[in-house]
Design brief:
The structure is a single chain. Helix content is about 10%, strand content about 50%. With about 325 residues, the protein is mainly β. The chain folds into three domains: about 60 residues; about 90 residues, no CATH class; about 140 residues, Jelly Rolls (Sandwich), CATH 2.60.120.260. β21 and β22 form a beta hairpin.
């Protein structure tokens, strides 16, 4: 970064330049090519008091370094930062958008600085690749704003090799369950994500998107709905993902083509409770989908309250999901 100083006449004043908190080792300031011997600490201002004249030049070197930004209530769950930029991990070409399902992706590495297991990719500025930390394969990380239309993750769980040995069996079982669920899925609507909602003809009144822990959702003071495919040849189940993080006491009726399939209530989360997501299943009667190719799933506020926040709407073949 270069700052050109162009006063109309030579004069003495103090030029204050911000040194960001993330600009650590390697930060330097040059004045007309000469390096300042002392500079302010990160997160403060570099103050340069001198007589300035037209043509003076100040050069700042602010190297971006890799670091983890952990969640306040879970030090093992974090985002990877590169200077001021959030890095997203590329999880593959399937479908675009954030990683589907409840799992937070896992990295396995000894307790080391990020730069020890995430390395720059030659010839691709701003692209990094894990070295031995990915479970199945190495993962490319790029600045979040550069993520193409692919699956990605921003938050990660990290374990040491010893910790992962203890957790792997449970994780693999949940992963296998998720695979079966996705194989049985006929339709999935991602509330709060513009293109996904267009694809499922989202409608509503008094509804608005919500976002909780990097997950998109939707809630309403009145109602919102989605049109989703069904398969009359199989028994159908509607699976809805909710959260305990609601705007206040909530209640809704869940309707399928105008018939009540279930209901859901929620309370305001108390400060000592961790935010969590959970699925609720609603059986769809066979006569309701007979001779149909799609149905409308509607969430309708009840008891004078807003709907709970909804973070996923899925229709599955019940006989294949177990």
């Amino acid at each position: 970064m270069t700052v050109n100083v162009t006063p109309q006449a030579s004069r003495r004043f103090t030029l204050a330049l911000r040194r960001p908190f993330w600009a650590g080792n390697g930060f330097s300031v040059k004045i007309n090519g000469s390096v300042m011997r002392t500079v302010a600490p990160a997160g403060s201002y570099v103050e340069i008091a001198r007589t300035w004249k037209a043509g003076d030049k100040v050069e700042l070197v602010m190297p971006k370094t890799l670091r983890k930004e952990a969640l306040a209530d879970n030090p093992n769950r974090f985002a990877v930062m590169w200077g001021p930029l959030v890095l997203a991990g590329d999880l593959g070409p399937a479908g675009g958008g954030r990683a589907a399902g409840p799992e937070v992706p896992v990295l396995v590495a000894p307790g080391q600085p990020v730069a020890d297991w995430l390395k720059p990719v030659a010839g691709k500025p701003g692209t990094f690749r894990t070295t031995g930390a990915g479970l199945k394969q190495e993962i490319d990380f790029v600045p979040f704003y550069q993520v193409p239309r692919r699956r990605y993750a921003v938050y990660w769980d990290m374990y040491t090799p010893v910790e992962w040995t203890k957790r792997e069996t449970d994780y693999r079982a949940r992963e296998e369950k998720q695979k079966k669920l996705e194989a049985a899925t006929i339709a999935f609507a991602q509330p709060g994500q513009m293109q996904a909602e267009r694809d499922t003809n989202q409608q509503g009144e008094g509804s608005s998107p919500v976002r909780v822990e990097d997950r998109n959702g939707r809630a309403a003071t009145k109602w919102f709905s989605y049109d989703l495919p069904v398969d009359p040849a199989h028994p159908m189940t509607l699976i809805v993902t909710y959260s305990n993080e609601n705007r206040g006491p909530s209640a809704c009726d869940v309707l399928v083509d105008g018939r009540k399939a279930g209901e859901q209530t929620g309370a305001r989360r108390s400060p000592e409770q961790q935010i969590r997501f959970f699925d609720v299943e609603y059986r769809i009667p066979a006569d309701l989908i007979a001779n149909k190719t799609k149905v409308t799933v509607r969430f309708e506020a009840a008891n004078g309250r807003s709907t709970p926040s909804v973070f996923g709407v899925r229709i599955v073949r019940s006989d294949m999901a177990r």
